[in-house]
Amino acid sequence: MKFESAAQFMAAMKNHAIWSGFNFKLKRSCETKVEVICSTDCPWRVYASWCRMEEAIVMKTVNDRHTCSRSAKNRQADYKWIATHFLENFRVNNYWPMGDMTREMNHKFGITVGRTTCYKARSTARKMLQGSLDDHYHLLPSNVAELKKVNENSTFRLLLDTDTPDSRVRFRRLYICFESLARGFLEGCRNFIGLDGCFLKGEVKGQLLSAVGKDGNNQMFPIAWAVVEGENEDSWTWFIVLLKHDLGIADGIGWTLMSDQQKGLGNAVAKLLPNAEHRNCARHIFANWKKRGHSTELLKNIFWRTVKCTKPEEFRKLLRLMRSIKPEAARDFDDVGVHKFCMAFISEWPKCETIDNNICECFNSYILPYRGNCIIDMLEDIRSACMQRIVRKRDLFSDSSDQLCPRIRYLVEENKLKSRGCTIKHAGHYQFEVMLFGDGYVVDLRARKCSCRYWALRGIPCPHAIACIHWTKDDPKNFVSDCYKRDMYQRVYHNGIPPMNMRNMWDEDELTYVYPPLVKRQLGRPKMRRRRDTIENFNLNRHGFTSKGMQKQCSLCQGLGHNRRTCNRRCSQAINMGSQDVIETSRLEVDGGDLQLPELSQQVFRQNPSPITHERGEASSSATKNLRKSVCKLLGRKKQVEQVQGGNSLEQPVYEAIIGASGPMYNCTPGVPRRTTYLGSYRGQFVTIERGGREWQEQFGSSSGMSSSTADNGDK
Questions:
Q1: How much is the pTM?
Q2: Where along the chain do its domains lie?
Q3: Is the pLDDT assigned to residue 686 strictly greater than 50?
């Protein structure tokens, strides 16, 4: 057999050793000679050297006879070999779980692999598939050039940092806004933009700033995004300046912006868009308001009723109610600025009553699988996801003839049901007085207004207006704002993002060599999840409720304060009972102290003792470790075993102990056949002691005495 080089020969030997299940070591190795032998005293040996006639490494001596046994731990299966062998698995799933990797190695090769090796293998495989961090940043100029080649009128701005300590050109910021997205937003969406930032989870940390709009179906529509070093006033100012240029926004007249309470963003909006309406997310305001000590359920309900009420008169009543309950809460509520997050004071022109920033949160969640990739892969995945999303949304009306978007149609039908309880009084000139549940409202169909202000805020007729529309024998869809119609929706998704060649077709820019930004590495393992706020309920069950404040009840013993996982009786129901006799023992004395085994119910099996298992499988390693700590003092010491029934006691040494919760614990009496198994509980753990076989059972199984029998081990 011939090989191109010694490295190829070693790779073949490594594959052979892993498949065969043995370890080898190098006896000699150089560029022209390689000899490998078995790591044990086995005669297996392979020698290969360079052959001038063949001009290759040729195997010259082979002794393929093994006398050693198969090994479950193979040092040849290192992380590099695992990464190379399972490269296609990592290509499908970059985050292939450690448990699946170890099970695959055990199932396919019969080899046990540690978690550290699996972590290194996954990291190596990702570098093989995606390239190194430096390679990604080196390709950024080429990526921007390819984007400009395909999207000529789009905006792609790469900002580099030349003033660095090592005098290298390093990446700082990148802004991306496709022409099709900007044009679709201007032609079919409302003048409402959500601004937010999210953390990147890759090797180099940073933040992704985004501007997101709302389409006619009340769903998110991404406009532009940028990768920056952090969320501050300087980065937001740079982002908003470019966004203003792409959308043609002057000083902000007729525009509404939504954001959280980020100070840098607020200062940038006030400086660049002074005449725009700037709303703040009510959810973030509530979180900060609650941290000031206003955390009761009553104050929470009053807060959201005050925020979501649309009439100024009702708002003032609710604020007085809050002030009567807790004046400090009302003062903190007023200090934020009610015109920023209360529906009673927001403007009506954008036809959007939103007081939270959920559209940006939707976009952040949409790109969540890509935020942990390197920068080139992340940007390409986001571009590809937006390109495919436009095509899917464009086909939304392919099988429908309705003039309204699906979500808007649902709201109209819901308001139709609510309008059945309205009492109408016609005042002429398409003006009406409407009574609903004792409350009166004025509706003007020509002005498309209702005194409840829902129609003016949303652009969708409220139940009072729909009752009047039905009185005039008209269709409510004719009174819905045009931004929710089919034609406007199709304008949004009419222009798609053109496809682009992958990196193998890019022209490499040799003039600009970009390096990754300098980032100080933090101590500890990198965090992949954001820090949740204390008021967030992140321990919810499948029904959406939290277990905080609830008392646990065991489903086995019906006791309170614990569950079935920590119940002392969890193992007793999983024992496979065979034909048995019962012997009772009370305690083991250890060095003058008693090791109490309360209510030891000890089984004497006439056949092979069945292993003890939990209901959910075999005992965990942590339970075995804890039990080992509790009982290991018995090893190598003399014990006095006292049986209650006979009162006999004898001194005997313990020579061997196998500590575990899934099998026999002790093999202690020399000369006594190993067939009887004693079961008991100590500190919530179950103890198993092997004693004797069939003949020992016949002699001592039902008697009270206990002695050193020399009987045979018995049948298995």
A1: 0.70
A2: 2-129, 137-281+357-385, 283-340, 404-484, 568-700
A3: no
Give CA–CA dist 642/646, Å, rounded: 8
Q: What is the CA radius of gyration of the chain?
A: 37
Q: Is the Cα dihedral 537, 539, 542, 546 positive or negative?
A: negative
Number of neighbours of residue 251 by Cβ within 10 angstroms: 12
Per-residue pLDDT averaged across 137-159, rounded?
92
Cβ atoms within 10 Å, residue 521: 8
- For residue 214, what are the β-bridge partners? 220
Return the biggest CA–CA distance within the chain. Answer: 113
Contact (Cβ atoms closer than 8 angstroms) between residue 634 and residue 654 = yes
Task: Give the CATH number of domain 137-281+357-385; options: 1.10.10.10, 3.40.50.2300, 1.20.120.660, 3.30.420.10.
Answer: 3.30.420.10
Q: Cα dihedral sign for 547, 553, 556, 562? A: positive
In tens, the pLDDT along 273-319 reads 999 999 999 999 999 999 898 989 999 999 999 999 999 999 999 99
Tell me how many degrees the CA angle 157-159-163 measures, rounded to the nearest 5: 165
| Distance between CA atoms of residues 511 and 130, nearest Å | 23
Q: What's the angle, vertex CA 259, arms to CA 256 and CA 261, rounded to 5?
A: 130
b/e map 322-339, b = 16+ CB within 10 Å: beeebeebbebbeebebe
Pair of tokens at residue 656? 């061997």
Average pLDDT, the chain: 79
Indicate the SS3 state at residue 108.
helix
pLDDT for 560-602, tens place per residue? Answer: 888 888 887 765 554 433 333 333 333 333 333 333 333 333 3
